[in-house]
């Protein structure tokens, strides 16, 4: 029986070397500077949240790490080795798994077929080893605490949260060292977001370096160890959990000083409509935080 697993690169790295490191990385699309001077370290067992409004450069950042676009400035390294990915396959082979919002899952195919999509197990004469794939899918989902009673069910019939969890479990099983999640909670309700956030923590606790892209400071603060806020392609904030409160992070995302100026202007228009920025509750402890 053979398996074509991904994420093969086992390059030696010291414990202090980030798995993925961006040093002053920039990306221009012609005259448009989508990213400028972005530095970011993804470390094992850490969740790095990248926050930013529409057009901040989050997708561009993901695409560079995932091998869809090449950066035009700066240095990208993986396990201390300078890299320039020419394709998503090269990124994947370096141990970087990217889970996009629209998920690379086939909605009409079963849960187990999706789990092994692109990495199918075969028997000696090349026929699919369905029994083994079903067994492993069941075992791996159970390990992650994901309950899907019928693995023959088409993935399209599952909830958005369950689909995100399958994609995360699949990346962990196939040996990803870095998991990049593109707004995994954006289309989900509160309960399903909670389930997905729990699996993001599980991925971190399994030793992966996680990059969690989100618009939502509340979701980021529940699980994040490290926060980077992008604004117009530049890093506007780079801080660790101990150094920031939820209120400050929310304020930073909401525009901080810009909002204050707007609030001041509005005060002249209609005093009753004015809400002071940063009227949150301050630092909260995360129920999901285990480190
Ligand atoms: N292929 C492209 N060609 C030209 N400009 C682009 C291209 N892709 C992105 N941009 C520009 O780069 C900037 C950053 O875009 P990007 O999609 O990375 O932001 P984002 O933070 O992911 O936004 P959103 O949350 O809306 O997806 C924007 O000004 C965008 O218009």
Main attributes of the structure:
single chain, 291 residues, alpha/beta, Rossmann fold, 6-stranded mixed beta sheet, 4-stranded antiparallel beta sheet, disordered N terminus, disordered C terminus, binds adenosine-5'-triphosphate, Sugar ABC transporter ATP-binding protein
Kindly, what is the distance between the CA atoms of the first and last residues, rounded to a whole number of angstroms? 39 Å
Q: Count the beta strands.
A: 12
Uncertain segments are 1-14, 273-285, 287-291
CATH architecture: 3-Layer(aba) Sandwich
- If helices are DSSP runs of H or I spanning 4 or more residues, what is the number of helices? 9
- CATH homologous superfamily annotation: P-loop containing nucleotide triphosphate hydrolases
Give the overall pLDDT as a whole number: 83
Q: What is the CATH C level class, in words?
A: Alpha Beta
Radius of gyration: 20 Å
Order of helices and strands: EEEEHEEHEHEHHEHEHEEHH
Our count of domains comes out at: 1
Under CATH, the topology is which?
Rossmann fold
Largest sheet: 6 strands, mixed
Q: Kindly estimate the percentage of residues that lie in beta strands according to DSSP.
A: 15-25%
Could you give a short description of this structure?
Helices cover 31% and strands 23% of the residues. It is α/β, with parallel strands linked by helices.
What does this molecule look like?
- The structure is a single chain.
- This protein is α/β, with parallel strands linked by helices.
- The protein has one domain: 3-Layer(aba) Sandwich (Rossmann fold), CATH 3.40.50.300.
- The chain is built from 9 helices and 12 strands.
- A 6-stranded mixed sheet has the order 7-9-10-4-11-12, sandwiched between helices.
- A hairpin with a 2-residue loop joins β11 (226-231) and β12.
- α5 runs parallel beside α6.
- The model is unreliable at 1-14, 273-285 and 287-291 (pLDDT under 50).
- Residues 29, 32, 34, 52, 54-60 line the site of adenosine-5'-triphosphate.
